[in-house]
Structure prediction request, 308 residues.
Amino acid sequence: IDFKTTMASVEFPSIFLNASGVNCMTVAEMDEMINAACTGGVVTKSATPQQREGNPQPRYYQLEHGSINSMGLPNAGFPYYLDYVTKEHAKPTILSVAGLQMSDNIELLHKIQASEYTGLTELNLSCPNVIGKPQVAYDFEETDALLAEIFSFYTKPLGVKLPPYFDLVHFDQMAAILNKYPLTHINTVNSVGNGLWIDIDTEKVVIKPKQGFGGLGGAMILPTALANVRAFRQRLNPSIKIIGTGGVTSGKDVFMHLLCGADMVSVGTALLHEGVGIFQRLTDELAAIMAEKGYTSIEDFRGKVQDF
Ligand SMILES: C=Cc1c(C(=O)O)[nH]c(=O)[nH]c1=O
Prediction:
């Protein structure tokens, strides 16, 4: 079964990617993603202009049905990731960038525009853990202004990483903004912002930053992820592809993301726990589901979830 896919005329040998932030901080991790079986390529950790240590530890904690994190954007800095993606690799790369303020985003995209890099870039509008900074993507006017400024000069392939939305009118408002711009894709969802977990033995929160508040990921956010993939598929121009992210732990979850309209699927929490071998497992499980249902291509069912 053929799981390759094309986005912005870039051929991905598989639909599977890592969620930015997981297994993508260093050259070794990014090479491991590219060299692993059944991966489509690699998405870098969101890069900031300078290298960042991130928040104090513990800043990640595994829950029974997912994860909570407040990493604080630790990364090796924009030059490190631009250097990596500009080199030749066996599979495509997506360069993720996250400014800490609007001017950072503009500066980073000017640098990419002026660089040798011709691959895909993803602007992270949804980091929930930069202390003191609200997520850009929850400010519709700022998002619109930022994209207008970017597309006044940026001509290379560009997508955006979005947080989950929880209100149908917000889907309408955000989709109306995104449809104004020549985006290659959206990647939805980022972690569900500012959850909290408590260790009842110590009666303490489980992560140090932000008094324990952190983004939620993993199995428990799958229903939210599916809703966001479907809602944007229903509203966005077909030219804007969708990377479905959030809650994927099995072939069934991948199948549901695809039924909702995802073009590619990325894995975060489960990848962190299982390692890159997960992509062969997800491929085998998806292929078994498709065989059972008599599907020979993802096109047989992509986006075809039915109303009740
Ligand atoms: C880029 C920062 C992000 C982080 C982080 O570095 O804290 N965690 C997330 O769950 N999503 C992000 O987008």
